[in-house]
């Protein structure tokens, strides 16, 4: 894998996680509430939002479920908007 593909992947991941934060805030949800709804440890969500660590795909999908959001066409969409 070359540096360019890593950079593109990192940028895509960062944008997805930014969207998760936006959806959480739009719903007026705290990190603690998201942790409870998703079953994901609060420290995982905090680290994700701080950009210090990113969850694995399974954990990320659980976070989306807690937000009642889906991943479609490379972007996150709130199920409420469907």
From TrEMBL:
Domain (HTH cro/C1-type): residue spans on this chain: 20-76
Membrane-traversing stretches: none
Pfam family, one: HTH_3
Highest taxon of the lineage: Bacteria
CDD domains from the UniProt entry: HTH_XRE
PROSITE patterns: HTH_CROC1
GO MF, one example: DNA binding
UniProt-recorded name of the protein: XRE family transcriptional regulator
């Amino acid at each position: 894998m070359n540096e360019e593909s890593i950079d593109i992947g990192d940028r895509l991941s960062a944008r997805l996680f930014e969207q998760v934060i936006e959806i959480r805030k739009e719903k007026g949800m705290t990190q603690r509430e998201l942790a409870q709804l998703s079953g994901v440890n609060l420290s995982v969500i905090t680290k994700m939002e701080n950009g210090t660590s990113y969850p694995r795909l399974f954990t990320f999908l659980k976070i989306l479920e807690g937000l009642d959001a889906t991943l479609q066409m490379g972007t996150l969409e709130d199920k409420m908007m469907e």
